[in-house]
Design brief:
By secondary structure, the chain is an alpha/beta fold. The protein has one domain: Maf protein (Alpha-Beta Complex). It is 30% helix and 23% strand. It has five helices and seven strands. α4 crosses α5. The radius of gyration is 16 Å and the shape is globular.
Length: 199
């Protein structure tokens, strides 16, 4: 099965391709198929993921998979949430994973409550008008470290610490990260949904 991934994030593409391998799914990034970014005007992960999936499917004619994910920091009332990818731009930095981590550590410098949740919402549609999208959500609770740790992963992985494992996502081997991460949990749900409804 060939799906378009409604994202141009290479880290996300590699992670999802590896995790969806049991289904024999081939994922292509929308940018590789000449599709630009969809608008994400909503305030929830599920609404934005659905909008992205429908957009990618409409522009490619393929079934689409979208992942809207983000970091929800307890002390910030759940922010940056759906604006996670653009977090650094609020503080004058260009958009990038590295700058997002830098901005977060700066903003949390004097914050004692370090609790945070990573959220991944996956939405799959067979067509732009699919009335029955498949929706899966995974959450992972942890704490924001005071400095970067580890060299693996992407996004906020170097500062997302998992107390039960005693490491950040960036310090974990890929297979361990995927077994415990928000995206890993969402993908396991999505695989079950696809097997039940699409295959």
């Amino acid at each position: 099965m060939h799906l378009v991934l409604a994202s141009n994030n290479r880290g996300k593409l590699a992670e999802l391709q590896a995790m969806l391998a049991p289904l024999g799914v081939q994922l292509s990034a929308q940018g590789d198929l000449g599709v630009g970014e969809a608008d994400e005007p909503f305030h929830t992960f599920v609404e934005n993921a659905l909008a992205k999936a429908r957009f990618a499917s409409a522009h490619t004619g393929l079934p689409a998979l979208a992942d809207d994910a983000g970091l929800c920091v307890r002390a910030f009332g759940g922010e940056p949430g759906v604006q996670t990818a653009y977090y650094a731009t609020r503080f004058g930095y260009p958009k990038s994973d590295d700058n997002n981590v830098r901005a977060l550590l700066e903003q949390m410098q004097d914050v004692q409550d370090r609790r945070a949740t990573m959220v991944s919402t996956l939405v799959a549609v067979r067509s732009p008008q699919d009335p029955e999208p498949l929706i899966a959500m995974g959450r992972c609770r942890g704490e924001i470290t005071r400095e970067r740790r580890g060299s693996g992963g992407f996004g906020f992985d170097p500062v997302m610490y998992l107390p039960e494992l005693g490491k950040t996502f960036a310090e974990l081997p890929t297979e361990v990260k995927n077994a415990h991460s928000h995206r890993g949990k969402a993908v396991q749900q999505m695989i079950a949904l696809m097997r039940a409804h699409w295959l």
